[in-house]
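User: My instructor asked us to take a sequence, write out its structure as tokens, and then describe one feature of it. I'm not sure where to start. Here is the sequence I was given:
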Amino acid sequence: MSKTTKRILEILPGFISWNIILFLFWGGYFFPDITAYFILLFNVFWVYKGLSLTISTLVSYFRIQASQSLNWMLEVKGFGDWKKVRHIVIILVANEPMETPLRTVEALAHQSFPLGQIGVVLAADSWSDTAKTYCDQIQKKYKDTFGACLVTLHPKNIAGEIIGKSSNEAWAAKRAKEILIDQEAWDIRYTTITSNDADAVLDHQYFAYLTFKFLDDPHRYLKFWQPAIVFYNNIWRIPMPNRVVNALSNIWQTGLLARKDRLVNFSNYSASLKMIHEIGYWDTDVIPEDYRIFFKSFFALDGKVEVEPIFLPSSADCAESSSIWKTFYNDYQQKKRWAWGVSDIPLFIEMFFRQPHVSFANKLIRLLRVIVDHLLWPINWFVITAGISIVAITNPNFSRTSLGYALPRISSSVLSVTMIFLLVLIFIELRQRPPRPASQPRWKSWSAPFEFILMPVVAFFFGALPGLDAHTRLMLGKYIEYRVTEKVN
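Assistant: Let's start with the prediction itself. The structure tokens for your sequence are:
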């Protein structure tokens, strides 16, 4: 792809987002009828999205409850070759307090799967003396607990690399393969590799469940496995607006597990090491790494790669800092980094055209879903929450017409259906949420169901705005640098 073509494709998401948002203003002034029908159609689409999310979240919730009550090791022992399976867990350690990765490793030490078949890799950047010290201390403590406990140090200033999770992860995975597969003779055909953020605490049955899925799947070398990413580690401690935005993220991530047609690995996930080695590991010149590794695998392996759900939670830290305003800023930056995944779209489009042997329908659906999700990210709020008000302000005369007079009532009637969906989703979220710690005041439990009144506000500041920020920066060529989300203990 030429630089010109790439820049055009980078400009398009921001160009489309801004034009749809601005259309509400100039369209409301010059073509109010068309704008009104556009808003109503978008409302109907939103009802469909709400119904789909509610159904999938309900399915995922009950599947998670069932999975947590099942003894997965009994299921695993039904396979004659289960003792051959090994799991490599890469824990990406950056600027977190030592308590964060230590808590994650302690949780791994309580896995129901035999610890001798698990290899822990503490992946740090060589220029971070603090991270190196933490990793060395954790390795010393747990060196005899697991089948292997390694520390890898990612060198600085490697030509063509961008500092961040993806490059560190690629380095750690290659070193783990050299040591555990090439030297220790672990069988790569029976080895999985798990991308695990330093703050992500896996369910104690995760590797037993993963082993079952791995052995039970004849296409195991063409799969990613994805747990439910939920931000519960510190949810009771963060400010109310941040609890709401993270609760919405928990709902979304839980619901996605039941939608295999939409599921793409995110944040914490597993795959066979054989597949990751075959496709050349994670790319080292990018910031977003989860969608990138999926599409890299998908196109490299003829469009046969899929993501399978693991109906168990992976509990992570919400963005947090030392004060309320710093927490707001930290959460905003995290959401902007997630939205920066839009920068991968030009590459996915290039892969789309360079892999003609991949099923056209399959790759088109995959690509369109990613594009639509990223395009709607900053647009949803403006159309659903503010669309009618924008039209009324820009064209007061339209409100006196029959359509203009009826528009708010029709829109309200359509969207009122989503209130039923929202109540169901809030109920599921509160049922999944861990109990309030004794250190937190009781009023946080009592107020939890009512916090969602803040949803229109937090959806703007921690959803639409960081999404629009990422799109605009990409459009203007103002590329962001990798920034690790701050962790507080």
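For the description part of your assignment, you could build on this observation: The chain has a mean pLDDT of 93. Try explaining in your own words what that tells you about the chain.
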